[in-house]
Design brief:
Blueprint (H helix, E strand, L loop, with lengths): L1 H28 L4 H11 L20 H11 L5 H13 L13 H36 L4 H15 L2 H12 L23 H39 L2 H8 L4 H13 L19 H6 L5 H10 L3 H29 L7
Length: about 350
């Protein structure tokens, strides 16, 4: 088993390199480099050369060639693409993600300033998804075919069919002062007077701001997990070892909770490997609708502004976490069922 995980970790490095090479190539082939973005700002802002030159000496967009060359050197575009990628790899080896072209500060600082929002909603929605889906899936499996199972299945399919961003708009209209009730605030993760509140008042204030966004973050994942939990448990109940346990006189509760449940959880723990991704559980539409300054909005703005270093930083960190999460999923399999032996 140790050899298996060592092989997985060894494969992780070339896979990560492959992802970064592809993304680096795509963003550099896309039109509108950071230099062009800067030139447009200088053009519409009436910018000129360092000595007031209007750029009539062969410049681009009204900017002199000297300024253009200075910009290329500043952003590192005076080198070929492959050299820039190798330089980026060298910086990554020293945990240096470079500087943001837009924010003009280290990429690490830009990302860490945004991810607390995504982290909070990601962790809360992940925990709620499993806390709701596993018990509900077990009850639906036990009461398979009953009125409760049918009604709950209809509700789950309705919830699953509603896009999160559309649900967000409906919740705001109905519960945030749209046309009906004004029960919940919209915008930010806490109120303006948050720092003046006591400890328990801060908790209540956070929960008050979190209810609507978390509902939208959770709605899709918990419905899928619930159906998966139910179907997995029903499949286990049909197997011979469960029939043998029943034949020996074991009560139904023990059959479900001790014998069948552990094996039924194996498909569920596959998603636990994605736990690391909750650090970057950004959603552009939800963050825009609820006015949350998180990773989703940062990614979108970075792509629009061609902030290559931020884009590559996000891709690198998210890819690394995804690959490590897959390895952790294998560990989770073993914890749930020790009989699993990876070769």
């Amino acid at each position: 088993m140790l050899k298996y995980f060592l092989r997985r970790l060894a494969i992780l490095i070339p896979t990560l390199l492959g992802v970064t090479v592809i993304v680096f190539g795509i963003i550099n082939l896309a039109p509108g480099s950071p230099i062009e973005q800067k030139l447009q700002q200088m053009r519409f802002g009436g910018g000129a050369g360092p000595s007031g030159d209007s750029g009539t000496r062969g410049g681009t967009h009204g900017v002199s060639n000297e300024v253009l060359e200075a910009l290329k050197k500043q952003y590192g575009f005076d080198k070929p693409v492959h050299e820039r990628y190798l330089l980026w790899l060298k910086n990554i080896a020293t945990l240096n993600l470079g500087n943001s072209f837009t924010y003009e500060e280290p990429v690490v600082d830009v990302i860490t300033s945004k991810f607390p929002v995504s982290l909070q909603f990601g962790v809360v929605s992940l925990i709620l998804s499993y806390l709701i889906s596993i018990p509900l899936g077990i009850v639906k499996a036990v009461k398979n075919g009953t009125r409760f199972d049918v009604v709950s299945s209809i509700m789950l399919f309705v919830f699953y069919s509603i896009p999160p961003f559309m649900l967000a708009i409906l919740l705001i209209v109905f519960f945030s002062g749209g046309s009906f009730f004004e029960w919940f605030p919209v915008g930010g993760i806490h109120s303006e007077m948050y720092s003046e509140l006591g400890f328990f008042e801060k908790i209540v204030d956070r929960v008050h701001h979190f209810i609507l966004p978390v509902t939208c973050y959770t709605i899709g994942s918990f419905t899928t997990l619930t159906v998966l939990m139910k179907n997995s448990l029903i499949e286990e109940i049909k197997k011979d070892y469960v029939r043998t346990a029943r034949a020996k006189g074991v009560d139904e509760k023990t059959v479900y909770m001790k014998h069948a449940l552990r094996n039924a959880l194996i498909p569920i723990v596959t998603g636990l490997g994605g736990f690391l991704m909750v650090f970057f559980a950004g959603s552009l539409l939800l963050e825009t609708i609820f006015q949350l300054d998180g990773i989703g909005l940062l990614s979108y703005k970075s792509i629009l502004s061609r902030d290559y270093n931020v884009i590559m930083g996000l891709v690198f960190i998210q890819s690394l976490m995804f690959l490590i999460g897959n390895v952790l999923s294998d560990f989770a399999y073993i914890l749930v069922d020790p009989r699993i032996d990876f070769q």
